[in-house]
Amino acid sequence: MSQTILSRPARPATSSRHGRGFWLVAFAFGVAMAFSTVPTPLYPLYMARDGFSTFMVTVVFAAYAVGVVISLLLAGHVSDWVGRRRVLVPALGLELVAAVLFLVSTDLTVLLVARLVTGLGVGLITATATAHLAELHAAHRPGASGQRFEMVSTAANIGGLGFGPLVAGFLAQWVDSPLRTPYLVFAGLLVLAVAAVLAAPETVTPPAEKPVYRPQRISADHGDPAGYVAATAAAFSGFSIFGLFTSVAPGFVAGTLHHPSRALAGVIVFAVFGAAAAAQSLTAKLPARVKMTTGLLAEALGLVVLVVGVRTEALAAFLVGGVLAGIGAGVIFKAAIGRVVAMAAPARRGEALAGLFLIGYLGLIVPALGIGVAVRSFDTATVLTGFAGVLLALLAGVGVLNRRS
């Protein structure tokens, strides 16, 4: 029998326990995503200490994204029938294992394994935590709009991604052992995140008969095929911006722009993700189509300004362009999640979200690796300009799909 028939959410019930659980899961989600970007401002330190090239940094970063994709393909949807907590707790455990690996060695092989393990954990967490938050919100506030869920889930996701580099950058700038202390801090937070998930109520009733396991499929069959394709393409474009700022951007700022401060690197990444999270809140009441169009225009404008900053080696323009692009990416991603949650049947919600995140995280891998390969033959300004051109073409395509959906 199909997963659609066998898996069903637990019966909604208005209770303060579901309300508390909503915020506990949001906390765990935010901590997990923040940990995944802790190495971002530290990459220049690894480069200086062990002689890593920009290409090798993108390989280490890509190992994380590959882990996410593998996890989403193999297990991103299984919480639909085994339960949300039974997936979230082991996933957070994987993040703890990665933290230990970062603490024991800076060897390249260990870094690659640590980033891969981090990605495996994040791949399990993203779709599962998002679905869990949607169901906790519905159980706590039956009949209410999904705006609170959309705002909190995307803030935990995108805001968490920005919070990690901010904390790591400041710790690396002003405390001893800059390649160890940030991981110690987040190891403690991850332990608290596990406790938070264990204290939250489950929202999925396991089926009497477990369905036959199959890897995650990528299907647009979720009520509105054109809308689902538009949402996944939008997620790809948004994650491409996030991938740029969590992989090669800190090295570009430290090298080409001559600003080696680890705190500054963390602030820049935080500004991009913080702008994304803030924009998600400010656009919460916009209609879905307007929200998507606004995000597309903001990201396109940000890319143009970003290229100006790159070509003129102007930090201010680079930062403004990054913030504008981050605003667009955040709004696009929020609109995409809201669209997928609304169109997917509850029993396939985890599957639909896993597909969305799968395509989105491909947006982390492909552009980052492409940039890493290209900088071996071309200067960084030329490579980033080409990246912007390709992404602008993709945004135009998303705009066409959005009008047709």
Automatic annotation (TrEMBL):
What are the entry keywords? Cell membrane, Membrane, Transmembrane, Transmembrane helix, Transport
* PROSITE patterns (UniProt xref): MFS (PS50850)
Q: Which Pfam families match?
A: MFS_1
Could you list the residue ranges that cross the membrane? 21-43, 55-75, 87-106, 112-134, 155-175, 181-204, 225-249, 261-280, 292-310, 316-341, 353-375, 381-401
| Family annotation (InterPro entries) | MFS (IPR011701), MFS_dom (IPR020846), MFS_trans_sf (IPR036259), MFS_Transporters (IPR050171)
Q: Where in the cell?
A: Cell membrane
Limits of the Major facilitator superfamily (MFS) profile domain: 1-405
Q: According to Swiss-Prot or TrEMBL, what is its membrane topology?
A: Multi-pass membrane protein
Q: Which branch of life, at top level?
A: Bacteria
Question: Under which name does UniProt file this protein?
Answer: MFS family permease
Q: Which organism is it from?
A: Kineosporia succinea
List the top taxonomic levels of the source. Answer: Bacteria, Bacillati, Actinomycetota, Actinomycetes, Kineosporiales
